[in-house]
Design goal:
Length: about 120
């Protein structure tokens, strides 16, 4: 059973930075594309960034130039470096496998950008 454990969120002022981690188990991690999602209060979950098994990356327009997705296959871990954070980045951040996300989501990690 695939499991996702997100961590690294917190409360930061606008312009601050956070680095999120997603530890994955239950799959051969290196064989999977991976994605970060976020869900703000009262809004639909949205795709933030993705990274393929071969390290190709893509980003949603609102985070382009500010966020960087990466992975460490030896640690079964994906990361999201978030810089120049804005209040509109406030959300619970989740990870999942790409292409066909698992129905079993992790607990997410809360990111709050506020002064």
């Amino acid at each position: 059973q695939v499991q996702f454990v997100e961590s690294g969120g917190g409360l930061v002022p606008p312009g601050g930075s956070l680095r999120l981690s997603c530890v994955v188990s239950g799959i051969i991690f290196r064989n999977y594309n991976m994605d970060w999602y976020r869900q703000a209060p009262g809004k639909q979950r949205e795709l933030v960034a993705g990274i393929s098994f071969s390290d190709h990356t893509n980003y949603a327009d609102p985070v382009k130039g500010r966020f960087t997705i990466s992975r460490d296959n030896a640690k079964n871990t994906m990361y999201l470096q978030m810089n120049s954070l804005k209040p509109e980045d406030t959300a619970v951040y989740y990870c999942n496998v790409g292409v066909r996300p698992s129905d079993y989501w992790g607990q997410g990690t809360q990111v709050t950008v506020s002064s």
